[in-house]
Every structure is written in C-alpha cells, then in structure tokens.
Structure to design on (228 residues):
C-alpha cells in the first residue's frame, strides 16, 4: 500500500523558513517523480513543485520560484521542500503526492498534508 | 500554461440525482485530464484519469468523458458520501500541474 506522510509544518513568522518532509513507503520510490501541492484555507489546489525520480530535475510554480527548494533522498525514501522568505499568502496545507506517468501524468497518491501558518 | 475552468462552481443536489460537472481547457489537451474528490479536512482522492479511466476502487457510479477542450465528470446516482468538492487536473509541460478551481457539491 502506498503511504505518504508529511511533517514539518507549523507557525512561522513572515520572512522565516521551514523544511517540510514527506516519507514514502509501499512503492519503489526512485521510480517516481514527486510533487508538492498546497491549499490555502478555503481555497483550491495549487501545484507548487515537482522533482524527477532521480532528483536531477526540479520544477517550480512561478509563485514560489527562488524561495522554495525541493529535494529528495532515494536512500531514505523522502522528499523535502525547503520553504523560505515566507509570506502570509504561503499559509496553506502542503501535500506531497506521487506522480504517476503512463502516457499521461497525474497525481495518484497523496499524503494527509501538513499545515504551514505564516503569521507574526 | 493551459488553464482549466470548471462549471458550475457550486452545485446543490439530492441523494439519487444524476449530476454532471464540466471542465474546460484553454487549449486542446487530448485526453490528458484527471478528476479528484476532496472532502473537508482530507487529502484529494483520484477518481478518474486519462479523462475516462476509473481509478481502482472508485465506485462505478462515477464516470468521465471528453477530449480536447471539454470534459465532464458524471455521478449517476448521488450517494451521501459523494457530497464533496471536485477538481479537474491536467499536466502542463515539465511536470507542472494545473487544477480547475473546484466544484462544491452540496446536499439540497
């Protein structure tokens, strides 16, 4: 069974930083790209970042480019995102999701999310 | 990037009703569309991918159709557990994803 468990969220002041982590199990981790998706309170889903299975290629939404850094450790089956220069608009539940590609790509398994609150 | 527009944004229906949600893409995306269900406080759950393929374990009352720029998600007979928010999603270039704005389905 695929399991994704996020951690690392919390309350942080504007301009601060956090490292969010996602621990994966139940599949061959290095064979899959992974993504982070966030959801602000009462709002819709927003893709944030993706990383290839090898970790060699990363992608970011324009809204977080230069402030967020995604990484993965295939020996530990974890994918992290370092979020910095945080703003109030970054307040959201952050989900990690597995990217499944078979002619098309979609997010087939999601973690339960970790809440990041940016406030002074 | 391709934009996805869902309609309606809000839908009120009764148990047993047949409901349809539409997702329109700003340009043609073949059949590269997925649908998700999200309940309050929970992670999104994949329902359909490749526009019409039902994810394993999803009840057959859910179906998807469409290609190009117009897609639909249909629930043939609403059950109490189906009241939730639904999102469409497609892959942009380079492993970036776009979501529709969501359709909130509530009990009438």
């Amino acid at each position: 069974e695929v399991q994704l468990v996020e951690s690392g969220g919390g309350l942080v002041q504007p301009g601060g930083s956090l490292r969010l982590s996602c621990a994966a199990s139940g599949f061959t981790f290095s064979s899959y790209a992974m993504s982070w998706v966030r959801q602000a309170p009462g709002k819709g889903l927003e893709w944030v970042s993706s990383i290839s299975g090898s970790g060699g290629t990363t992608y970011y939404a324009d809204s977080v480019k230069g402030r967020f850094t995604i990484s993965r450790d295939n020996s530990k089956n974890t994918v992290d995102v370092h979020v910095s220069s945080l703003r109030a608009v970054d307040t959201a539940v952050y989900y990690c999701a597995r990217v499944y590609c078979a002619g098309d790509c979609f997010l087939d398994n999601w973690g339960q999310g970790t809440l990041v609150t940016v406030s002074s | 990037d391709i934009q996805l527009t869902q309609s309606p944004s809000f839908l009120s229906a009764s148990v047993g009703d047949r409901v349809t949600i539409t997702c329109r893409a700003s340009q043609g995306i073949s059949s590269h569309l997925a649908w998700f269900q999200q309940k309050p406080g929970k992670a999104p759950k994949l329902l359909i991918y490749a526009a019409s393929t039902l994810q394993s374990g999803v009840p057959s009352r859910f179906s998807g159709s469409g290609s190009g720029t117009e897609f639909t998600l249909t629930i043939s007979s609403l059950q109490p557990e189906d009241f939730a928010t639904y999102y469409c999603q497609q892959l942009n270039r380079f492993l970036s994803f776009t979501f529709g704005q969501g359709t909130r389905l509530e009990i009438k």
